[in-house]
Design a protein that fits this description.
The complex is a heterodimer of chains A (892) and B (116).
Chain A lengths: L2 H5 L1 H25 L4 H12 L2 H11 L3 H19 L1 H30 L11 E9 L5 E2 L2 E4 L3 H10 L3 E16 L2 E10 L3 H5 L5 E2 L15 E4 L1 H6 L11 E4 L2 E8 L13 E6 L3 H4 L16 E5 L5 H18 L1 H4 L3 E6 L7 H37 L1 H9 L4 H29 L24 H27 L3 H6 L10 H35 L10 E6 L8 H16 L4 E7 L10 E7 L11 E7 L3 H5 L3 E4 L13 E5 H7 L9 E4 L2 E9 L14 E5 L11 E7 L3 H15 L9 E2 H9 L1 H35 L1 H9 L4 H30 L1 H7 L8 H27 L3 H6 L1
Chain B lengths: L7 H17 L5 E2 H11 L8 H14 L2 E7 L5 E7 L1 H29 L1
Antiparallel strand pairs in B: 1-3, 2-3
Helix pairs in contact in B: 1-3, 1-4
């Protein structure tokens, strides 16, 4: 019943009224029939029935849901009040919109990149990422444990033996230059196991997914499933697309399926444009054929735990299987383990990069929300002074305090609901903003979408309610505590800045200044860290070195053709004016791809019993070390005379010498790499290989020209030159065209830029976000301080007039106001310093590079910024105080 | 909401009025004025229906779905709201009547013993 009746009360009342009139008429008919005169008949009828109005009221009340009734009343009243004070309403709603919107945006980013990163994939909450582990502690991973990948044979065994998992899938990121028609572009792609689409519950809208047989047979199944985007944009949505051949890495692949719209694969950061089965691994994942080699760890993948199974149990079962494999295959698996992670901790994709940044961002936007709430709280307090008369009258004529409180909270709720609507719109507009901060997005299409699903909406709504309580409760309590007798008399004047309510407002300003200080201090720490990274020494000279690469594989080169092209190109570039040296390198340092690794054996070194020593290496051409200016501390580097015909040579780094030769010069000694014996010809200084934050790790280099049939086809050149990249690019283009007119060119950038793209991403996102939010916080706090000061001044016009009449100079007044404001600001900054000292430690591990989280310079900078902003905020009110005309002030 | 919070004694009286109204409607639909008169006449004027509570009671019964209502023309040729017993109301009346009978019998037994 209830609601329907509640809303049709008016209609029902009219009907009842009619009914009662009918009753009276009938009664009158009876009375007249009994012989009464009409007037008496009417009187008797009314007497018998009682007052129709009373009856109507009884029914009306019975139909009333009193809570709803008064809430609607409050709502109407609140809207009217806010409508009549547009300035206040707009400023408050804007403050809250920024606060709620920032929170909603960050929540949507977290949802879209960390918690449910893969649209269309079912049961993501049970999906786990999987990595291999090995003892170590120098590379990616945790103390004492390095994360590696998983081999295909091992994955088969996990699949067979793990009873707590629904499935395992392979998802290895790769990239290629895709030429369709006359258009070539760099796209991300994935090598996946044949169960990939079925396991994820994603069904192609055209054609089929992969078949189990397509996992097997070296290079045996050149088939591909393409993305919806690729189909629509590059193949114009051709309905006859199935069966068409597309050249991928130089090999024609048959298109067998089209993925549904909105499915971008399962790699956080890049939209995947096509998928190939694992049997094509050799073509897309460098380093030879790996499907039959248990020692080749190349697989990144996911598994799904069965419903109700905890991560711990699943991990325990997988570890048990890994242990068994260790015993069965000690040669390859000794010391190897496996580890699973929830999706948001996935170590091998964008999740690991975004995780810490988004955590900090979440903390930061919460602080911004607090500041916004404090600001609106302050504004409401001012309003409550203005409305004191209204409130007092309402209390005096018998309004209950609880009712009044509810009325004031409803006003707050209206503000925050409006702001939440605006905030969600803001978050929607910002949902793809993360990509802007991602430096690599200029090179490869990058995707870090925010998702505004119901979870984000519910959380935002909760934030909206919480913030209402935060900003509206205190002023409402204050307001409803009016002393009726005192307030009705008249407001007694007290001296400047010594009023009860202004003390509360001062506390709010203190809070805002303190919170903004934390953000500004955090921001300056991050900026300092960014500077440190920009100028850090990576162990090679990044200045005056250019990097460029050629995708010979996509162009269909084979090894002999690639070798002759590489030799010719190096010769030609070497003779260009301004070029000091040039060298080939398989992977430049700080590339996103991972290095090769190989099991090694060293004469005279006995590994610990449970470990098969494995180290990472790179393939470099003659002159690499001199081009990169990596010092050779002993022996020599590769030269053109190291060829397939001479004894295989390696250059090791100092860390490797320390680990395997106990610090003794190994030049001339032997080392076995995989199954091949090699001779150490030189020792290179340690350098950074993947990130600036990494510790020194063992690393070695093998000679490019000694690789023979395994020689790489993909070509990257490092060039030492004083020429700027632009000049070099055109010269280079000329030389390349002379060799192969059809070959696509890639950009020529400085080594510094190349490093920045990978090393700076997380830092730059953090700095970008934090600077934006710190700026907003600063602005809000300044507005807050300004509002408090100008209100205090306007309330004390009389006092200032009196002081000036008694001989105070404008300077004295100025000093009084300024000192009051600056005392507040200083108090806030002191609180902020204390809080910041405790909080900045939290970003030290992940985001600060070689910066003390208590760096005095950064704190001093934050202090100066805050004081400057505070002075600016106090200046205008103070100046206005000096302009008070004592005569008028005293007369009013 | 709040309607059922009234004290027990009032509840019983209210329930009684409800029962009488429902009983009145057994022969057929009637409007408020008739209902009031029928109750008074049937009880030989012992039960004076406070006419003021008749309409809220009718309203309540309609709310619970025990009676339905429609507008019609009365014997005096006036527009009047007629009330009609629903199936649910008939069942309710049945239950109420037997309960009432039990209570009356029980009270009678108690009083009879007290007189001995």
């Amino acid at each position: 019943m209830g609601l329907r009746r509640f809303f049709s009360r008016r209609h029902e009342d009219a009907e009842l009224n009619q009914e009662l009139q009918g009753h009276i008429a009938h009664e009158m008919d009876d009375n007249i029939a009994r012989g009464m005169p009409e007037e008496e008949a009417r009187r008797q009828a009314y007497l018998k029935l009682g007052s129709p109005r009373r009856i109507r009221e009884r029914v009306w009340r019975a139909n009333t849901l009193s809570l709803l009734e008064s809430t609607l009343q409050d709502l109407r009243y609140a809207l009217r009040v806010l409508w009549r004070n547009p300035g206040f309403s707009i400023v408050s709603v804007l403050c809250l919109t920024v606060g709620i919107g920032a929170n909603a945006a960050v929540l949507s980013w977290i949802e879209g990149t960390l918690f449910r990163p893969f649209p269309l994939v079912q049961h993501q909450e049970r999906m786990v990422a999987m990595v291999g582990t090995k003892p170590g502690g120098s590379g990616k991973g945790e103390p004492g444990l390095d994360y590696t990948n998983v081999s295909w044979p091992d994955l088969q065994d996990f699949q067979k033996s793990c009873t707590l998992m629904d499935w395992f899938i392979v998802d290895r990121l790769t990239g290629t230059t895709l030429s369709i028609g006359d258009r070539a572009e760099r796209v991300a792609a994935s090598v996946v196991s044949s169960n990939y689409f079925d396991a994820l519950g994603v069904h192609p809208i055209l054609g089929r997914a992969f078949e189990p047989g397509e996992d097997w047979g070296r290079n045996g199944h050149p088939v591909t499933v393409i993305s919806y985007w690729l189909w629509k944009e590059r193949f114009q949505g051709d309905p006859q697309i199935l069966g068409r051949k597309q050249l991928l890495n130089g090999v024609p692949h048959t298109i067998v399926g089209v993925a549904p719209e909105g499915f971008y694969g399962t790699f956080v950061g890049y939209p995947i444009q096509f998928w190939v089965p694992v049997s094509m691994q050799e073509l897309f994942n460098p380093g030879g054929y790996k499907l039959e080699d248990r020692g080749e760890q190349w697989i990144e993948g996911f598994a799904r735990v069965k419903p109700g199974v905890t991560m711990e149990r699943a991990q325990a079962e997988m570890s048990a299987v890994a242990k068994r494999l260790e015993e069965e295959y000690p040669a390859t698996n000794r010391g190897r383990g496996v580890k699973i992670f929830p999706l948001w901790k996935t170590p091998f994709n964008g999740a690991s990069r975004m995780g810490p940044t988004l955590e900090v961002a979440l903390a930061v936007v919460f602080l911004v929300l607090l500041i916004a709430c404090a600001n609106v709280s302050g504004l409401l307090l001012v309003r409550s002074l203005v409305r004191r008369h209204e409130i007092t009258v309402r209390l005096a004529i018998g309004s209950r305090r609880g009712r009044l409180l509810r009325q004031l909270l409803t006003e707050g709720l209206v503000l925050s609901v409006l702001a939440a609507a605006g905030g969600l719109a803001l978050a929607y507009m910002c949902r793809n903003l993360l990509v802007v901060f991602f430096p690599l997005s200029k090179v490869v299409p990058t995707m870090l979408p925010g998702t505004l699903d119901w979870r984000v909406l519910v959380l935002s709504l909760a934030i909206c309610l919480i913030s209402t309580v935060m900003f509206a409760l205190v002023p409402a309590l204050q307001t409803s505590k009016v002393d009726i007798a005192g307030a009705l008399k008249s407001d007694s004047r007290t001296s400047f800045g010594a009023r009860g309510k202004s003390r509360l407002r001062s506390a709010l300003v203190l809070l805002q200044v303190a919170l903004s200080f934390i953000l500004v201090a955090g921001g300056s720490l991050l900026i300092k860290s960014l500077q440190q990274i920009r100028t850090a020494d990576p162990g090679f000279s990044a200045d005056n070195v250019l990097v460029t690469s050629f995708d010979l594989k996509s162009a269909g080169y084979d090894v002999p053709r690639a070798r002759s092209f590489q030799d010719a190109l190096v010769d030609r570039v070497q003779s260009l004016p301004g070029v000091a040296s040039v060298a080939l390198v398989r992977l430049p340092p700080f590339s996103f791809a991972s290095y090769f690794s190989a099991p090694i054996t060293v004469d005279g070194y006995t590994p610990p019993p449970n470990e098969q020593p494995t180290e990472e290496y790179n393939q470099v051409g003659p002159g690499y070390f001199s081009t990169m200016e990596i010092p050779i501390v002993s022996g020599r580097e590769f030269t053109t005379s190291d060829t397939e015909l001479t004894y295989p040579a390696v250059v090791v780094n100092e860390q490797m010498v320390a680990k395997y030769w106990h610090g003794q010069d190994p030049v001339g000694k032997r080392i076995q790499v995989k199954d091949k014996w090699m001779q150490v010809i030189g020792v290179a200084r340690n350098a950074k290989y993947e990130t600036l934050a990494e510790g020194p790790k063992p690393f070695f280099y093998v000679g490019w020209r000694q690789l023979g049939a395994n020689s790489p086809i993909g070509t990257t050149l490092v060039i030492r030159t004083v020429q700027p990249p632009g000049t070099m690019a055109s010269a280079l283009a000329h030389e390349v065209r002379a060799l192969d007119a059809a070959l696509g060119l890639s950009e020529v950038i400085t080594m510094r830029e190349y490093m920045n793209r990978s090393a700076l991403a997380a830092q730059e996102i953090a700095v970008g976000l934090l600077s934006i939010f710190a700026g907003i916080a600063l602005l809000l706090a300044t507005i807050g301080l300004y509002a408090v000061m100008s209100h205090a001044v306007s309330q004390s016009t009389h006092e200032f007039g009196l002081r000036m009449a008694l001989g105070a100079s404008p300077l004295d007044v100025l000093r009084l106001v300024m000192s009051h404001g600056l005392v507040l600001a200083t108090g806030g900054v002191i609180l902020g310093v204390i809080a910041a000292l405790a909080l900045t430690r939290l970003i030290a591990g992940n985001l600060l590079y070689k910066v003390n989280p208590h760096d005095p310079l950064a704190f001093a900078l934050a202090f100066l910024v805050m004081m400057a902003a505070s002075s600016a905020a106090c200046c205008v009110p103070a100046w206005r105080a000096t302009r008070i005309d004592p005569v008028r002030a005293l007369r009013d | 909401m709040g309607k059922r919070k009234s004290p027990a004694s009032q509840d019983m009286l209210q329930g009684t009025l409800d029962m009488l109204i429902l009983q009145t409607l057994i022969p057929g639909p009637a409007h408020g004025h008739t209902i009031a008169h029928v109750i008074e006449h049937a009880s030989e004027d012992v039960l004076q229906v406070e006419q003021g509570s008749l309409y809220p009671a009718l309203h309540r019964l309609a709310d619970r779905g025990w009676v339905s209502s429609y507008w019609g023309i009365s014997e005096n040729n006036r527009k009047a709201k007629y009330y009609k017993l629903t199936f649910k109301g008939r069942k309710q009346l049945h239950a109420e009547t037997s309960r009432w009978q039990q209570v009356v019998e029980a009270i009678g037994r108690v009083l009879a013993r007290a007189q001995q």
